[in-house]
Amino acid sequence: LGWKFYDADDYHPLENKKKMAEGIPLNDEDRIPWLCALHDILRREDASRQDTILACSALKKMYRRVLISGASAIESNQPEQPGQNPALKILFVHLDGPMDIIAGRLEKRRGHFMPPELLKSQFDTLEPPSAPENFITVSLEKSLPETVLEIESAILRG
């Protein structure tokens, strides 16, 4: 697509990386500043009219609201008020699959700070996207080319 790509894991503060490396799951207090920083990146790219893909484990509905609206999403569940920065238009792609498939992929990953043992805590935290969120769900049981094609098609449909 020629879009800019960001991996959210590259933006975790050192404290978060250390915590995960020790097998300790992150909590909301750990994740919110990280998500706000990611929102700022997305806001900057949007302001420069740069289409962007962000790979991010936005596990909770609140986390996805922070990506869309920034810190203001934490204080209020209300829509943006006139005069405030408008919410970003984001299509969330929920990559859905059974724990054993994801665990197998994590086992093959080398040099990452999050050990596969934390996968269960992520499943426990997960709030799958639902209406009125702007999302698609793509099965991880499909081949990589099928997955990419499904995501590209959804993006191009708008």
TrEMBL record:
Family that this chain belongs to: Belongs to the gluconokinase GntK/GntV family.
The GO annotation for biological process reads: carbohydrate metabolic process
The name this protein goes by in its record: Gluconokinase
- Gene name of the encoded protein: Idnk
Associated pathway: Carbohydrate acid metabolism; D-gluconate degradation
Q: Which organism is it from?
A: Cnemophilus loriae (Loria's bird-of-paradise)
Q: Which reaction does it catalyse?
A: D-gluconate + ATP = 6-phospho-D-gluconate + ADP + H(+)
* Alphabetical list of Gene3D superfamilies matching this protein: P-loop containing nucleotide triphosphate hydrolases (3.40.50.300)
Gene Ontology molecular functions: ATP binding; gluconokinase activity
